[in-house]
Amino acid sequence: MTWRTVVVAHRAKIDYTMGYMVVRGQEQHRVFLDEVGTVMIESTAVSLTAAWLSECLRRKIKVIFCDERRNPAGEVLPYRGSGGTSRQVRRQIRWTEERKAAVWACIAAEKIRQQAAVLDDFGCGEEAAQLRGYAAAVGPGDRDNREGHAAKVYFHALCGRGFSRRDGDLRNRALNYGYAVLLSACNREIAAAGYLTQLGLFHDNVFNPFNLGSDLMEPFRPLVDRCVLQQPLQEFGPAEKHVVAAVLHRTVTAGGRRVLAGQAVSLGCRRVLEAMETGETDGLREPWYEV
Predict the structure, then answer these.
(1) Could you tell me if residue 115 is inside a domain?
(2) Which end is more exposed in the chain, N or C (fewer Cβ atoms within 10 Å of the end residue's Cβ)?
(3) What is the pLDDT of residue 81?
(4) Is residue 124 included in any domain, yes or no?
(5) What pLDDT does residue 87 have?
(6) What pLDDT does 2 receive?
(7) Are residues 225 and 98 in the same domain?
(8) For 8, how many CA atoms within 13 A lie in the half-sphere containing its CB?
(9) Neighbours of 211 (CB within 10 A)
(10) Which domain range does residue 272 map to?
(11) 133 — pLDDT class (breaks 50, 70, 90)
């Protein structure tokens, strides 16, 4: 029963013993390989044995390696008997423009609603009401660019009318750092589900290897915005980076229960991918999470 995704995020050695994946780091963990479908190697400080890798290939377990920024860089698949990823990619290639437009509208609307909630919390009620109007007006593919108009109102209200996301100030450095954490989390979910990160719904830059991740992360950007805006930034050093990097460990409400933000991101990514396969977007019109 291959249902578990194992993530190795810190320095460790992985070995194989008697049907178990053994991870030796600061602590030792044993995972029964019959339950594993995907192993994500997040850290470049992980070493592994050929015996373990060979056993993963025999059992058709996907092994994904990440780069120094924790974005998926490649994967190992057996030569024979592994068609899961190929099947998912073929489905992804066949996603219609109409379905992409419908799902992107849900993503854009949810992002704007989450931005409105941030504005409410920071005492910008008038602008929050304006954004809720934008969210309600998002159409298929957001051809009227409500998302872009909302972003302008949003950042001007929170950071002043002279603020630009193109500036290189401390606030933008912190935001970009947090967004990179979010993007990495979404990319891992996409890769673990067997899809290509390059083929997006709205984002389609030929030089962006993470177009789909860039789509899926949008509703979660306000999590990073809250984190950055809540701390005074005199510098952006290791201590500040640690606070921003921990954004996925904050607690939110998703699916009717209190979970870590990282779990909410995982749930949101799965809901989008399911909607792209089924064409059902009702689940995406409900709030994805609440802070």
Answers:
(1) no
(2) N
(3) 57
(4) no
(5) 87
(6) 55
(7) yes
(8) 31
(9) 19
(10) 92-107+160-285
(11) very high
